[in-house]
Specification:
The complex is a heterodimer of chains A (570) and B (248). The termini of chain A are far apart. Chain A is 37% helix and 20% strand. In chain A, strands 1, 2, 6, 7, 8, 9 and 17 form a seven-stranded mixed β-sheet that branches. In chain A, a hairpin with a 6-residue loop joins strand 21 and strand 22 (552-557). Chain A is an alpha/beta fold and 570 residues long. Chain A has three domains: 2-229 and 346-412, FAD/NAD(P)-binding domain (3-Layer(bba) Sandwich), CATH 3.50.50; 235-343, Flavocytochrome C3, Chain A, domain 1 (Alpha-Beta Complex), CATH 3.90.700; 415-557, Methane Monooxygenase Hydroxylase, Chain G, domain 1 (Up-down Bundle). Chain A has 16 helices and 22 strands. Chain A is globular. Chain B folds into two domains: 4-105, Beta-grasp domain (Ubiquitin-like (UB roll), Roll), CATH 3.10.20; 108-241, Fumarate Reductase Iron-sulfur Protein, Chain B, domain 2 (Orthogonal Bundle). Chain B contains ten helices and seven strands. With 248 residues, chain B is an alpha+beta fold. The N and C termini of chain B lie far apart (65 Å). In chain B, helix 3 (108-116) runs parallel beside helix 7 (171-181) and helix 7 (171-181) crosses helix 10 (221-241). In chain B, strand 6 (99-101) and strand 7 (104-105) form a beta hairpin. Classes of the chains: A alpha/beta (570), B alpha+beta (248). At the A-B interface, helix 3, helix 4, helix 10 and helix 15 of A face helix 1, helix 3 and helix 4 of B.
Chain lengths: 570, 248
Amino acid sequence: MERATYDIVVVGGGGAGLRAAIAAAEADPSLTIALVSKVYPMRSHTVSAEGGTAAVLRDYDSFELHALDTIKGSDFLADQDAVEFFVQRCPEEIYQLEHWGCPWSRDPDGRVSQRAFGGMSVKRTVFAADKVGFHILHTLFQTSMKYPQIHRFDEYFVTTLLVDGNACAGVIALDLRGGQMIAIGAKATILATGGCGRVYEFTTNGFIKTGDGMALAYRAGVPLKDMEMVQFHPTCLPGTGILITEAARGEGGYLINKDGERYMQRYLPGKMELGPRDILSRSMIMEMKAGRAFKGLYGEYLGLDLRHLGEATIDKKLPMVRELTEKYMGLDPINEPIPVRPGQHYMMGGVSTNIRGETAVPGLYAVGETACVSINGANRLGSNSLSECLVFGTATGRAAVEFVKKKPAFPGAATIRDALKKEEARVFDGLFGRERGKETVAGVRVEMQQLMERDVGIFRETTALSDACTKLANLRERFSQVALTDKDRVFNTELTAVLELDFMLDVATAIAHSALQRKESRGAHSRTDFPDRDDANFLKHSLAFRTDGAPRIDYAPVTITKWQPVERKY
Amino acid sequence: MADRDVVFRVKRYRPEKDSKPSYQRYRIPYRDDMVVLDGLNYIKDTMDPTLTFRWSCRMGICGSCGANVNGQPKLTCGTYIRDVHRGVVTVDPLTNFPIIKDLVVDFDDFLNKLASVKPYIVREDWGDLTKEYVQYPEDIEAYKQQSMCINCMLCYAACPVVGANPHFVGPAAAALALRYIRDSRDEGADARLERLNTKSGVWECTFVGECSVVCPKDVDPAGALQTLKFLATMRHMKRLLMPKMASR
C-alpha cells in the first residue's frame, strides 16, 4: 500500500495531458505535478493523428471565419462562446509548439505552411507532412523533460477517482509493473485520457482508447455530454481500420465508386471531397446501398484516388499515406486507388466541462477528446481536435493552478487510506476472486463492439437503438461473470482489459441511450426515423448521468452568441 | 478464411512463478494478411489470456509492439507472418532490456538517457508567440531524418555495444541529440556534445551499424553517431585552440 501527494495530477500523457502539465508547470514552477499514464506517454494515441491542426495565421483568414466554419460544421450544436475562445487562441499554440521545436512544414519563405481540410473554407490547417500527431506528441513529451517538477508515473492505470466530501482529491492507480495499487492525492485532477473508439468494432483508434477518463468522471457523478455525437471518418482501410488522412483529399485526392465516378457530385457538389466527415461517411453508405461500391474480402468499399497527384506530391506531403497503403494493403497509391470505408474515429461528446476544463465536481477537470466543452457540437471539423488539445490543455492547466493556489489543504490521510483499501478490495479481491465462468473478456468485448457497430453506427433508428440499450444491459450482467485466468499481480494485461471493458460498457451505454433519446438528425447523429434537424426540441446538449439502472438523460442549452442557427448547406 | 496453421513459439516469463524464461508453443490458423501482432492477439483472445505483450496503434507509429521475431528486432504490427515463418515464428522480448513479464521489457533506462541529452529546444531569447521562428524547407531537411524516431527501441535491441555496456547512451537518444543540434532554432549543441563526449557517450559506438539496419523509420542512428563523433571532436579541438571562444 503506497501513497503520494501532488498539487496536480494529470491522467493521460497524450497531447492534451502533456500540454496541461507543461502549462501548469510554467504557470507556477513551485507546484508539483504527477503525470499518470497507462502507457509510456509517447505511445499515447495522439501519435496516430495525421493530417493537421487548425489556426488562423494569414491575412486571407479570420477568427470570424474559423468560428463560423466550426459552428456550421457542428450543425449549430457547438457553444459559440467556447468556439470564439478557441479560435482566438489557436495561433499562439501553433507558435508555441513551433518554438518548442515541432517540425511544421514550411513555405519557401520560411513561414509555417497551411493546407486545405474538410469543412474549412480556406487553407487553415498547419501540418508536419502527414505525421502531425506524432510530431506534436514527441515535441510535447520531450519538452516536458525540461520540467523537474513534472513527475511521471509511466504505466500506471487509474481505476477510480479519490473523492473527499464532494470534491475530487486525486486518483487511485494500479502500478502495472509493481502489481499494487497506489493512491495519488492531489488538490486538482485533470482527466486527459482521450476517446473511446474501442467500443466500436471498426475504428481508427488504438487498442488503448477505452474511454477510461469518461467513465471515471461519469462514476464520480459528472454528466457525459452529447455522447450520441460519434464521428465516423470516411477513409479507413478495410480490415484494420487504419486511418488514411483527410489531408489526402485536402491535397486534391478524389473519392470514386466502382464506375470510376467522383460520386460526391451526387451529394455535395459545392464541396465534393472536402465536405465535412459526417456527410462524406453517409454518402459512402448511400453508394454502397445503391450498389456502386467495390466488394472485397472485408466487405464493401470505395476508392480514394491519388494517382493524379503524382509521386513527388505524395512523397512530400503524404508520405505516411504511401507507407501505410504499401504496408497494410500491398498497393502503391501512385498506381492504384486506395480502398476505403467509414470507421469510428472520434467522440465529439465527453465529460461535460466549461472552457476552463472544470467539471461539476470541484477539483476535477477534463480536457481533449475525453472532454466536451463543446466546440465540436454534432460534428467536428478535421484539424480542430489537435488544436483543441493544445488550446484547452493550456487553459485547463492554468485553471487548475489557480484552483490549487486557492485550496488550502491536501486531502486527508485517513480519507485516502480508506479509499485505497476499498479499491484494493474491489479490484484484487473482487476480480481475482471471481470463479471461472463461461464468459471471457474478449468474448464480451467483441459482442459489445459488434452491437455498437450495427445498431449505434452511422445511420440509426428507434428499434435498433432500443435493442442496443437492452443488449448492453445484458452484457453488463454477463460482464460480472468474466473471470481472470491470469492471477498474477505483475503487468496483468488481462486484468487491465477487464477494467477497460468495465469502463467501455459504461461509456457505450451512455452513447446508446443518448442516441435513442435524440429524436432528430443533426451532424453525425442520423436517425432514419427522424431525418430532419429539430431546433425547436433538440437545439440542446444531452447530458447522461449515471444511475444504478439506465442512464438518466437530461439536457442543457446551447450558447448562441452571434450565429443564429440556419440550415446547414454547403 | 484461414487456410494454414503456423506455430508461434513465444518466450514466456512470469516473475511470480518462473525462475527463468522458457518457450511456449501455440498452433494458430493464419491468413496472408496477418501480422505477427495479429497472431499474438489471436492467442491472447482465444487460447491463453495470460500471454503478455504491449501494443496500441497497430500502424507502426506508437512504437509499443517491438519484439525479436525469429531473432530480429521488429515491430510486430508491421511484420507479416507470411514473410517470416518457416512453419514456426519465434517471438522473444527485445534483447538488452530487463524483462518485466513475457514480451514486456523495461524502457525506463532509455528515457533517462533521452532526458540526459536535453531533447528539447534550448535558447536564451524565446521572443513572443505572435510569430514563428523562420525556418526554410532546407532547414527542416537538416534534422528531419532524426526527428522521425518513434522510440521503439529496436535499435537498442540490435546494438551489441548496448548489450556489453549498459551505460552507453545508445542509438535513439544519440539520434535525437543530433536532431536538436541540427535544428536552426536551437542553442544547446555545446551542452549536448559535452554530455556525449563522456564515457557513456558516442565514443562507445564501434559503428557496427545494426541500429540503422533494424530501424523501421530510416532514422539512421549509426550515421547520427558518426556525425556526433565528428562534432564532438571539432568542439574539443576548438576548445584546445581557442579557449576563449569555446564557451558559447
